[in-house]
Fold this protein.
Amino acid sequence: MELYGHGNYNSKHVDGGFFYRNPTNRGGVYSNDGGATLLVGDLTPDDGVGCPVVVMNGVTPDPVAFQQVLDDPNCFTFQELIPGGFTPRFGGDYTDVSFLAGLRGELENGLAWDASMYYGKNKVDFFINNTVNASYGPDTPRNFDPGAYTQKDLNFNLDFNYPLTDNVNVAFGAEHRTEEFTITPGQVESYTAGPLAEQGFSTSSNGFPGFPAITSGSWDRSNYALYVDTEWQASDDLLVQGALRFEDFQDFGTTTNYKLGLNYHITDDFGVRATYSTGFKAPTPGQANASNTSTELTGGVLVNNGTIPPTNPVALANGGKPLGPEESTNLALGAFFSVGEVDVTVDYFNIDVTGRLNLSSEVRLTPEQIQDLIDAGVPGAGDLTQFRFFTNDFDTNTEGVDIVATTSTDWLGGTTTWNLAFNYTSTNVTKYNPETIGPARIRQIEETTPDTRWTLTANHQMDQFRILGRVSYYGEWYDSFEYDVFGTNAVFPSEFIVDFEGEYDFSDSLKLIVGVNNVFDNKGATTEEVNNLGFDTATILGNKYSQYAPFGFNGAFWYGRIRYEF
């Protein structure tokens, strides 16, 4: 018998800026009429004495009326507290912990067995700083704890493997899985309405409202599965495989999925393979139950956009319904062959997904619906303009081809392994519910990722030294954010990225690795170049590069690692 296991702990602190809040026209904080007048709060509304109306002359308040507000302790405007506006800082402290332990062995009759347990926990404790809960007026905190999300998974597996004959092998086993999603409520000021709420000041922490106690809690689900997998080596050239998996979900009932595959060598240097399988993916407890609100830019205007459970009455009135599972079919056809010293594989794949899980299009809220969301405890509902929810309301077809070519060259005192990997993938929405999914959302689903990508890698090994070079190509992609704001085509051009890595082996156990991803610091085309409107659009929104860039927009990344194997 053999005892085995592994563990992982990872933590990081993430801090990023939200959109700037303009001190002349930010709704719910500085003005509620687009900047025509300042939003002035009456701190003693029951004394019968009102506050003056402060008219804005461009970006300057009327000096006489504004001075009257400043001189009156019972009147308040955020231009007193934060005259230059503010930019919320949003982020979180992230921790990820996991470990697996197992025991495996083999009986005298050849039956191999493996019993294992896996536990994982992922937690994000959010914060939002340098912001306000405007409805608290001068008493607002500036930093808030909005709460936390936690996901836990606990798996138990029992697997067996047994050779029935010299050319037939059977594997079978069982799994039990429990997953739990928890929303931890935030501090009270991050989600409550202060005394100025009735005068038009926004409630909750501006930018990301905290999670109220009423919508917080834990949701869990358990399921078990049984499977059997058989491989038959029908001849030296033909391998046939079949697999069957039965699964019982606590909330979605049972599903049975299968897989059929074969691998056939026609000659020593040429063969074909094929696989057909079905799949099932249940929605997570978080997708079905989470509520949150964030500030987003829609049509060039900052709005509060909420995500609510699909079973909320407001969602139900707009096409929402309890979530169901995704179901899929997957066909893959391939060939493998050699051309001289080059080994090549070519694979075609075609995947149909029905009832795909994704967010709906945004829905505009009526005043009555806003009140319903407030009553339901949705965070920041009093300041919401629109909302969305998870749905199963569209189907997709994804097809493409993978080509991989590999060879090696003996030179420069060592051996270089060359690898060229090419991928073309196209996704199309084949069916959808127009009540919840619109043309803009469809284009985002179909075009946000590049259709074409390839990577050429050279890995040279020479005694204790190893040097790797890699060139990656990404085809063009669509940025829905730039389109929504500026109405441009918003298609970013293709790009090349170059990586390098070096390794030195001090011994069989101790290795030093240094490298750089994106050595030429390529961040992609700027939004100004793509939008081509005659001015720098990044000065308006702060988005100098596409937020959907498949290689990110942070440029070069240098790293070093020391690895020791006991």
Q: What stands out?
A: The radius of gyration is 29 Å. Residues 63-71 form the longest helix (9 residues).
